[in-house]
Amino acid sequence: MTAIIVTLLLLIIGGFIAFAIYLQLKEQARIERLRKAALLNNQLRQVRRYLDEMPAQYQPKDMRLWLYSRMIGLCDELLAIQADEPLSRRRRFLQEEMSQFQASKEKRRAKPVVDEIQIMELKRLFESFHGYLLSTKSNKQIDDESFARFDEMLHWFRYKVNADHHSYLARQFFLTQKMDDAINEYQEAINQLKPIEEKPEAAELINKFVETIQEIQDDMALQQREAELEAEEQGDNEAEEELDNEWQRFMEDGEFQRKKHF
Questions:
Q1: By residue range, what is the domain housing residue 44?
Q2: How far apart (Å, rounded) are the C-alpha atoms in residues 202 and 197?
Q3: Are both 124 and 211 inside the same structural domain?
Q4: Domain total for the chain?
Q5: Given this model, what pLDDT does residue 262 score?
Q6: Reported confidence tier of residue 260, pLDDT bands at 50, 70, 90
Q7: How far is residue 103 from each of residues 43, 59, 96, 97, measured CA to CA in Å?
Q8: What is the CA angle 247-253-257, rounded to 5?
């Protein structure tokens, strides 16, 4: 009888222990789901930021499509943890947005880089995106070819953003007829690209700036020549007018002498 009681007590105690372990494991699983959900939501906000804040000139179509696909993939991971109707709607909207962008033939407008603060913000964004690329590569969420392409793009953008800023300043000087300042800014834009001038994209942009400088210089030379010709013509007109005045005075004096003689 005593053995039976002891056995029952052991079973009861073992049951309580097993139940406590079950509850603990269940709580750990719940906490892990919450932790994973928070991580995925942070990544969703991060990728959305890349989509919204990287200007079109630093976000080619294939990169933007990949970012859309990452957001949709993150939504799928969240839905696998816990079904959520607002998240399902969000995923459908993302899919529609991605499909519309993929089918669109409209060229996205570049955003001018107007000041040094904007340059710093964009460079921080590039660094953050580079870190995200490394993370997706380690998690096998991007293929090697796409990673290499986007990584090379970011290296190019770090220089291009400075050149774009000086190009913007040059354009503003040109529009206000400050041609010497415009040339200086275009030359500085070229200098910003010198460290990577062997890249085809950099070489193309450098050639574009060189051609623009030459056009401005040709226009300045033409304006100067026109001003010189106008000054010469004005001088000739003044000389001719002076001769006419002298002739008129001579005629008036001659007429006066004739009248006096008469």
A1: 1-105
A2: 5
A3: yes
A4: 2
A5: 40
A6: very low
A7: 26, 17, 11, 10
A8: 140
Same domain, 100 and 121: no
* Residue range 21-69, pLDDT digits in tens: 666 666 676 677 778 888 899 999 999 999 999 999 999 999 999 999 9
Residues 218 and 124 reside in one and the same domain: yes
Confidence of residue 140 (pLDDT cuts 50, 70, 90): very high
Q: Which two tokens stand for residue 176?
A: 């206000």
Distances (CA, A) of 139 to 129, 136, 142, 143, 193: 15, 5, 8, 10, 34
Which pLDDT band, with edges at 50, 70 and 90, does 259 fall under? very low
| Final residue of a structural domain among 54, 72, 105 | 105
Whether 186 contacts 213, CB under 8 Å: yes
Structure tokens at 121: 């913000």
Give 167: exposed, middle or buried? Use CB within 10 Å, 0-12, 13-18, 19+.
buried
